[in-house]
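Deliverable D2.4 — example input (structure tokens):
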């Protein structure tokens, strides 16, 4: 994975707004790979629960507290993700949980 690096401007946005949107952090191919995996993953299908918003649209959520040796673990252990989060928070980080929303 060759990803876009976070910049001081991203950090400033995070400090000011509490979040930052980074377009093209992953390549289109990487994003498609992750999306397809989440759609086809039987564990996600079995462990998903949904909630409807006020307009009737359902949001599906799957949540777990360990990172495995799968595509989700590879993305969460990606050095660019870790470096970016540590830059934003200003300290070392650890994985607390993984969420997949559809």
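Example output (designed residues):
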């Amino acid at each position: 994975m060759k990803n876009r690096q976070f910049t001081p401007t991203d950090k400033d946005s995070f400090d000011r707004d509490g979040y930052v949107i980074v377009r093209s952090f992953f390549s289109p191919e990487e994003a498609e790979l992750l999306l397809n995996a989440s759609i086809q993953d039987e564990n996600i299908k079995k462990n998903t629960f949904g909630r409807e918003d006020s307009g009737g649209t359902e949001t599906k959520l799957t949540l777990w507290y360990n990172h495995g040796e799968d595509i989700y673990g590879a993305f969460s252990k990606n050095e660019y993700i870790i470096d970016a989060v540590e830059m934003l928070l200003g300290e070392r980080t650890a994985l607390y949980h993984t969420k997949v929303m559809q």
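Residues 8-101 form one domain.
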